[in-house]
Amino acid sequence: MPHHDVLFRGLLGVAAAAALLTAGTGAATAHGAPEPARAVAAPAKPLGAQSSAGHYLVDGARIHTQPSTGSTTVGYGYTRHSVTVQCRRVVAGQEWFHHTDTTTGVTGWGRWDVVVPYIAVGDC
């Protein structure tokens, strides 16, 4: 499944949950009249999961120290490796994922075209 489809489906799930939270229950007051519906404030946390399993899209994916192709490469990811994605950041229009290659133990940044989470993660 393409990465953007995964993010879109995750966002749809969050939107559905928010709609359920804001729906009024119509609880009765002491006079028997229903109370007006009140919006429930969303918790103050970033959109998406705390972390997600993921995968590399290519062999030899560079793992960077910063969300930039100009930063130091600290390791390489391969399609057969396991990945845990912690969060995302958009830099200069490019989506980057802070992740750990759990096969090698190397942690760093990978761009959207080399590493993707299975479900949407929050912003870093």
Nutshell version of this structure?
The chain has one helix spanning 3-22; strands at residues 52-56, 61-64, 73-77, 83-91, 94-101, 106-111, 115-117. With 124 residues, it is an alpha+beta fold.
User: Level of helix content?
Assistant: 10-25%
Query: By helix and strand content, what is the structural category?
Result: alpha+beta
Strand content is 25-35%
* Number of beta strands: 7
Instruction: Give the H and E element order.
Output: HEEEEEEE
Radius of gyration: 20 Å
Report the uncertain regions: 3-31, 33-45
The rounded distance between the terminal residues' Cα atoms is 24 Å
Sheet with most strands: strand arrangement: 6-5-4-1-7
Main β-sheet, in a few words? 5 strands, antiparallel
Report mean pLDDT, rounded to a whole number. Answer: 76
The number of helical segments is 1
The gross shape turns out to be globular
